[in-house]
Amino acid sequence: MKTKNSKLNVQESVEVHLGSGGTLVGHLTFVRQGQRELSQFAYAPTWLNNTDGFEISPDLPFEEGYATRRAPSNVDSVFHSALSDSAPDAWGRRVIERAHAKARKENSKLAPLCELDYLCAVDDFSRVGALRLHKNGAYLRTVGAGRRTTPPLLELEHMYLASRAIEHNTETVEDLKYLQGKGTSLGGMRPKCTVLDEDGKLAIGKFPSVNDTFNVTRGEVLALALSRRAGINTATARAISLNGTAVALIERFDRAPDDKRIPYLSAASMLQASREDTHAYTEIVDVMRQRCLNPDDDARELWRRLVFNLLITNTDDHLQNHGFLYAGGGQWQLAPSFDVNPMPGKLRESKTWLTEDSGPIDSMRMLLDAAPYFSLTAAEALKVLAAVWTAVEDWKNVALSAAVGLTVAELTAFEDAFEHEVTGEARRLLSPR
Questions:
Q1: Residue closest to 309 by CA, chosen among 366, 383, 373
Q2: Helix, strand, coil fractions of the chain, as percent rounded to 5
Q3: Which of 106, 114, 274, 309 is the most exposed place for a label (fewest CB within 10 A)?
């Protein structure tokens, strides 16, 4: 990191490229003056004149000139939305901070971390979406030819043990070196890593946490299996065992055959939402109608997901847990469902509101009343509810299947997430009159 005058004053620029071919999209400049940070981005003229060029982020209009961004709050990013979506999540930041703290013990003159350090710390190969950071003839956090930083599946246990050491505050420099860059923007605070599965596909490995009181990893695989049965476009997932420890392996959906990278935006980015603000699903529908290739299809799909979330008590439905993939021609489409978890013992209401007036989702009737906004008639909505309910009702059998691997004893911990007043409400709504 270059410094000016002091280690608290920083200015540095990097190129932003797109896709496996590395097309130059624009230039990013980061500035820190004391405690103040800002970033600036300008599209490259070649990108503006490219017939395939498009606006990579809602807060970066497809036009000449620099756009400046300052974080609107202490919990928001200093980078424009598309770039922010490719930065490490809370777990990734934790790994970076631990490694930097150990390095500063060896070298007290090492500059404090700035937000650009976090953004650049993700391995180029595994960075979410299609944006890539390039400087001095190389993509940031890459290794020499013939080597790779994203490990194969057989190294998953090594990564699990390193992540467990971090949670116990016993990690070594080698543990941190092994985990650095292997994080992801998808998934929050839980320990995880990026890995290559047996077919060479990019995947996220999610580990149990020392704070878990039930089998969270197999619970997520259960939720994703039920989601697929409910007719929802869902990230492919399976549970594997590491000497008796369950790990959720979830295939990345921002990659296509031949390692093609697909641009990605979170719903928070689409709405230009601060993490401090409360937003509604009807706002997501509104932005779909402006930016999506098939907005009515996506709206109906979103409503199906809301029904599913309510039935399985997936209440961690903040805007970072919904996303969009680029569909070409300047348009987007709803990304597969991911980061879906049954949450027993939680207050059964959504983090994201249904509408700006109605508040959090807490009943099936509330969803049915709003169905027309999601391009569904009353009859179509009941048909969707029936399909989702049929899938969720079979949760115990799916949980005990080899693909999920929960035991009979473990089912008790999940009952509160699947058997509750809303499931009773759904039964009544679907009962013949």
A1: 366
A2: 40, 20, 40
A3: 106
- Angstrom CA distances, 422 to 113, 199, 350, 419, stand at 47, 40, 13, 8
Strands 36-43 and 131-135: unpaired
pLDDT > 90? residue 176: no
- Residue found under tokens 């903040």: 318
- pLDDT class of 146 with cuts at 50, 70, 90: very low
Closest CA to 403 of 264, 266, 229: 229
Q: How far apart are CA 189 and CA 101, in angstroms?
A: 19
- Give the integer Cα–Cα distance in Å for 26 and 65: 10
- d(Cα 7, Cα 26) in Å, to the nearest integer? 27
From the list 163, 149, 147, 114, the residue with the least C-alpha distance to 3 is 114
pLDDT, position 178 = 77
Q: Each residue of 397-425: b (16+ CB within 10 Å) or e?
A: ebbeeeebbbeeebeebbeebbebebbee
Q: φ, ψ for residue 368 (rounded to 5)?
A: -65, -40
SS3 category, 60? strand
User: What are the φ and ψ backbone dihedral angles of 174, each rounded to 5 degrees?
Assistant: -65, -40
pLDDT tens digit sequence for 62-99: 999 999 999 988 889 999 999 999 999 888 899 999 99
**b/e for 164-181, b at 16 or more Cβ within 10 A?**
bbbbeeebeeebbebbbb
Residue 30 has φ and ψ, to the nearest 5°, of: -115, 135
Cα 115 to Cα 337: distance, rounded to the nearest angstrom: 29
Residue 333: CB atoms within 10 Å? 19
**CB of 234 closer than 8 Å to CB of 253:** no
Comparing CA positions, the residue from 376, 358, 366 lying closest to residue 283 is 358
**DSSP code of residue 431:** S
Instruction: Take residue 110 and report the two structure tokens written for it.
Output: 């090492």
**Spatial CA neighbour of 343 closest among 305, 316, 308:** 316
CB 344, CB 222: distance < 8 Å: no
Q: What pTM was computed for the model? A: 0.93
In three-state secondary structure terms, 215 is coil
Q: What is the pLDDT of residues 297-310, one digit of tens each?
A: 999 999 999 999 99
Q: Phi/psi of residue 328, each to 5°? A: 95, 160
